[in-house]
Amino acid sequence: AREKYLNSERLNLISELSASVSHEIRNPLTVTSGFLQLLNQSVTITQEEKKYIEYSLQELKRAETIVSDFLAFAKPQSENMIFSNLEAEMEYTKNIIIPYANMHQVEVEYSFNNSLYIHYDKNQLQQCLINLYKNGIEAMKENGGMLFINVYEANKSIIIKIRDTGIGMDKEEISRLGRPYYSTKTEGTGLGMLMVYSTVHKLKGTIEVESEKRKGTVFTIFLPV
Ligand code: ADP
Ligand code: MG
């Protein structure tokens, strides 16, 4: 119980801190990118200088990704609060992820079967779902596979099940999920699961992980009404 308490304290702190930091950093990043792009179009610069500009733009883009992850997860809860049954968000995020899935030979199977209404932040929920889908697809990068997304209700809860047939995780890897910057990917930020846990926590829900190496992973989110 003590560990749980510390965990949610830590999440609140990180969430508040990152909100202000992300806002402050995003503007200078955008401005710098803009000027570098202008510079890149100059006819007087050498090939070598062009290369440096392109590296800089790449790095700025990476910084922007990190900030976006933070920003989405730190968004104040009152901003986009709605009372709904998730259907619009489920449909929207499924459609967004399909091109990314196709790119990696992943087929998406989706079913929505519930009618429960809860209060939630629209953007935050979308970001949370996309983070889980992306992780699932990225776990199948090698050989493709299936991503199952199922929503239904049981015992006055909304249940969201997200299953992939990817590389899976062992016990130790599962226990690292949600730790800031924990990533096994070269291009990973290690912030996706932190955002997922934070969102579920804010909705007073729980999340279960079942995983087996080389078999796949199931994330089950329970959201109380
Ligand atoms: P990132 O995706 O940027 O690496 P995340 O916080 O989203 O950061 O995920 C952290 C790590 O958890 C991933 O790098 C990966 O090792 C592991 N992980 C998350 N979801 C899955 C999954 N569905 N299958 C296998 N590993 C996963
Ligand atoms: Mg991720």
UniProtKB/TrEMBL annotation:
GO cellular component: plasma membrane
EC numbers, comma separated: 2.7.13.3
Annotated GO MF terms: ATP binding; phosphorelay sensor kinase activity
Enzyme class, first EC level, given as a word: transferase
Record has Secreted as a keyword: no
Residue intervals of the Histidine kinase domain: 20-225
Topology of the protein relative to the lipid bilayer: Multi-pass membrane protein
GO process annotations (BP): cell wall organization
Span of the entire protein shown here: 187 to 411 of 411
Protein name: histidine kinase
Signal peptide: none
